[in-house]
User: Which sequence fits this backbone?
DNA sequence: TTGTAGGCGTTATCAT
DNA sequence: ATGATAACGCCTACAA
């Protein structure tokens, strides 16, 4: 069964391929309504479906968006196990599809770049989440498609950025502990990398401590790649070696939940013995017991926003780039994991 | 900045474009090792990156795989909020990338087909999860790319299938309750659809009841689309209207966790008042409190397997189709949500 | 072994 | 308003 081409349609409709192309692309000003009707009918009859590869070749528009998310270091798998990314992807995909774009979702090997993929596929744009080495971004700048960075503090006029005020989030969480009488507050966090979100959350944590006249103790910072298991581990360390700690600010809900489990593993209770605040407000945060107090951000909305910024930039390649930083709202959600100390 | 083409490479290397194409595609038998070296050098020097659109146009191979997962009915967003799908996707993407393929991830609108996408993008294959209407599959059969159905009981020689023995899963869970002395066992389940996985799990549930000489009570079946919230709702109903029920088999962990929360909302405890078994063993199942007894399947492995089957079918289009059903292992994981009745 | 040239499906530039 | 026709980048008979 051979493919139906634009030529088949043109013959059937008794017009030229150019005419068909015009009506297909909505340039209907250029063609008589009679021709439009004939073409539409032929398209319908033949069940014609355009070939995007050919289109891409002819006009460099692929209707394809590259989406990159971090992957686990060990198994090279997407970090989708962190629900935050799942939700982000949901938002991106939904918005993209709504505008007739498709999404190529992939991780990128450590040390590899994204230039190859972007050129091979003639991507119309890309959404990048996670933090990479300098050269990765330098590479990306060489390509002329619009790029949206999600959760990055790599400011550069080449990139659009969608994020939140991570420093504020860290500050709010820590201050909430302080307001509830806590003075020994641990930080359980993902790897603190330059220009990354956790670095800012860490900064907010320190600011709140300083503001309250509290001593910042580096021993109370537990840093590791973002996993549930390390949350458990950190709780264990805290219970056994740092009895003075009464509160834990985890820079992601995933770790916070690990901490909660770890606390219980040690025969203690949340929040009776240890208070916990997380970050993200992934959907399980309200499902766990006790429901987790956390810094809420709306990952789905973030994804939708990232997609929208990208689509706008694709529409209008040389628009004002001054307004290329979008900061989404965030708030502290009080649930049941923070105890008020007397 | 113009694109580097195969012609640029050929000129730089002082050979023909055909020669370049040959070494690029590994047909090195057709070309002298000297030429190979020259071409490689030129490719390197020029930083040549092939255009997959052009390739796809020329030989109908796109190195692109379509992956379809269900979406929420209301918001048209991917069902990634169910970690089971996240993990599945992780497996698929990792395996695909390893072989140089890219994945287009998308949902499909109710009533829409996937034929358009598959033709537009010249997909080399597709992995479909979820259950759709008859016509969806009929459509899919018209296209000649290999297709792997994950978790489907739509047997057809056109499709490869990767799944588990869902009926057995349902049976094992139910029997486990019975062995622990439970006789009034509710089923909290996603929509029971023909040829879907939950239908089989439901069948397994009934078989176990029957085998034990227990009465199957339709009132004890709580059916709804798969959400955490409905799990809560079902628990509420059970607590208030069906006090005789002592055990709940949920056909997905997501619902099981909702049930657990719902039970607590009613001031009762798991497993003291209500025992719970889930299905899937998503990663949070072991993280929740108490850790959830569940039917374990390895979603990541399932994804990898699905990708592998597809890749094999692409390699070898007219291979034996008799072995196109792959059943992955499954097992009951005992944790702490089932109480042994006296 | 190597090179030439035609074709893949579409868009865009010209004439008409 | 419409229709030839030349790109677009690559592959692959076929010819040399």
Assistant:
């Amino acid at each position: 069964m051979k493919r139906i081409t634009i030529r088949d349609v043109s013959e059937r409709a008794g017009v030229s391929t150019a005419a068909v192309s015009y009506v297909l692309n909505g340039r209907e000003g250029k063609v008589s309504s009679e021709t439009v009707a004939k073409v539409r009918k032929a398209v319908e009859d033949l069940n014609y479906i355009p070939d995007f590869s050919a289109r891409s070749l002819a006009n460099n528009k692929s209707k394809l968006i590259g989406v990159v998310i971090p992957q686990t270091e060990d198994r090279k798998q997407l970090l989708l196990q962190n629900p935050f990314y799942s939700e982000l992807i949901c938002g991106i995909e939904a918005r993209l599809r709504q505008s007739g774009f498709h999404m190529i979702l992939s991780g990128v090997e450590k040390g590899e770049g994204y230039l190859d993929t972007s050129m091979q596929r003639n991507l119309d744009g890309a959404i990048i989440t996670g933090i990479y080495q300098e050269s990765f971004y330098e590479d990306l700048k060489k390509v002329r498609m619009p790029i949206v960075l999600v959760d990055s503090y790599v400011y550069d006029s080449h990139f659009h950025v969608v994020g939140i005020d991570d420093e504020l989030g860290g500050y709010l969480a820590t201050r909430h502990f302080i307001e509830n009488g806590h003075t020994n507050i641990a930080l359980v966090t993902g790897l603190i990398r330059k220009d990354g979100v956790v670095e800012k959350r860490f900064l907010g944590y320190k600011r709140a401590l300083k503001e309250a006249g509290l001593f910042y103790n580096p021993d109370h910072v537990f840093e590791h790649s973002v996993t549930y298991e390390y949350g458990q581990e950190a709780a264990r360390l805290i219970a056994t070696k740092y009895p003075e700690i009464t509160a834990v600010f985890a820079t992601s809900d995933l770790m916070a939940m690990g901490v909660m489990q770890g606390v219980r593993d040690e025969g203690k209770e949340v929040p009776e013995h240890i208070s916990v605040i997380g970050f993200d407000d992934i959907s399980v945060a309200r499902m766990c017991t006790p429901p987790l107090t956390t810094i809420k951000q709306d990952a789905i909305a973030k994804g939708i926003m990232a997609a929208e910024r990208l689509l706008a930039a694709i529409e209008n390649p040389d628009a004002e780039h001054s307004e290329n930083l979008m900061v989404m709202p965030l708030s502290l959600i009080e649930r049941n994991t923070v105890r008020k100390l007397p």
